Amino acid sequence: MGAVLSCLEGICQAIGRVLMGIVNAIGAIIMFIVDGVIAIFDIIIGCLTCQGCRGRGMRRRGRRGHSTV
Asked: Which superkingdom heads the taxonomic lineage of this protein's source (predicted)?
């Protein structure tokens, strides 16, 4: 009798792990999509406020202008 209950318990645990794996995969896909949308909006807002173009150029010039030799 104990073996049957142990087997049923194992089956239930396996089904639970499969369902949690599916939920985690769906959550990861949703987070990937949301992160992509946020990155696109960040790029658009950066271009509209000219932060994308000027900010990168100023950083590059600053690194070239300072030497530690």
From this structure: Eukaryota
